Amino acid sequence: MDDALVIDGKRFTSRLMVGTGRHRNMQEMVESIEASGAQIVTVAIRRLDLDDPAEKSILDFFDWDKYTILPNTAGCKTAEEAVFTAHLAREVTGSSWIKVEVIPNPRYLLPDPVGTFEACRQLVDEGYCVLPYIHADPVLAMKLEEVGCATVMPLGSAIGSGQGIQTLDEIKIIVAEANVPVVVDAGLGVPSEASQSLEVGADAVLVNSAIAQAQDPALMADAFRLGVEAGRKAYLAGRIARKDLGTASSPAEGVATAATAGS
């Protein structure tokens, strides 16, 4: 069965996207991303040192024929900054894909819905493939889809918090209404939360801190890979209905009783 994730016409077999930030060193970053099986890797353009061309950056540690780079606008507080960073990202990477993040308050790292919408609308008009990071707001998700975003990326909880999915009911609504891929992004701490995202119908998840800050990042990345695969299979298989009462798994008819056991 062909169960590819399709974004802007590109097909992917992995439904786990990963980030490159917060790793303790480059070796752990490369090993964990390889172990994740991810095909889409996001990079914060504003955090690259582009002043010294002789200095290696994160971009130099990957074979970009093997991965799809997803530049992001992390660190941008306004729509204008996000648009500028997207332009810079296209110059640096040659990619028109952009993950839009507009986050005015660095303490809570929650996305600005108005600034995000403004940046996304302009970048879509300029021909970018736009993947916006948003709060789990079904109305905003629909508006972003209507202006042409390639995905919507609702948060599970605050970036890097490891609090898991605090927005499950809203994510379910977004999944039910969306006609573009839904990627749960931010706050996931363990693979079971990634699995839960896929189980309720999300198309993919993006994980960074939970892998990068694990005691064994490569092992955790592999665990997230398995969690995503399990969640997708569970969604496709179709879970049993929830019931108020228990239902015996063995048949009630023909059960041996004390009266019949000696006959």
CATH topology: the name is TIM Barrel
Secondary structure tally: strands: 10
Q: How are the strands of the largest sheet arranged?
A: 5-4-3-10-9
Average pLDDT reading: 93
Descriptive notes:
By secondary structure, the chain is an alpha/beta fold. It has a single domain, classed as TIM Barrel, CATH 3.20.20.70. It is built from nine helices and ten strands. The protein has helices at 26-36, 79-93, 113-125, 138-147, 168-177, 191-199, 209-212, 217-237, 258-261; strands at 5-7, 10-12, 16-19, 40-44, 68-72, 97-100, 129-134, 153-154, 183-185, 204-207. The radius of gyration is 21 Å and the shape is globular.
Indicate the topology.
Layout lengths: L4 E3 L2 E3 L3 E4 L6 H11 L3 E5 L23 E5 L6 H15 L3 E4 L12 H13 L3 E6 L3 H10 L5 E2 L13 H10 L5 E3 L5 H9 L4 E4 L1 H4 L4 H21 L20 H4 L2
Parallel strand pairs: 3-4, 3-10, 4-5, 6-7, 7-8, 9-10
Antiparallel strand pairs: 1-2
Write a concise synopsis of the structure shown.
With 263 residues, the protein is an alpha/beta fold. The protein is built from nine helices and ten strands. Helices cover 37% and strands 15% of the residues.
Write a concise keyword list for the protein shown above:
single chain; 263 residues; alpha/beta; TIM Barrel; five-stranded parallel sheet; three-stranded parallel sheet; globular
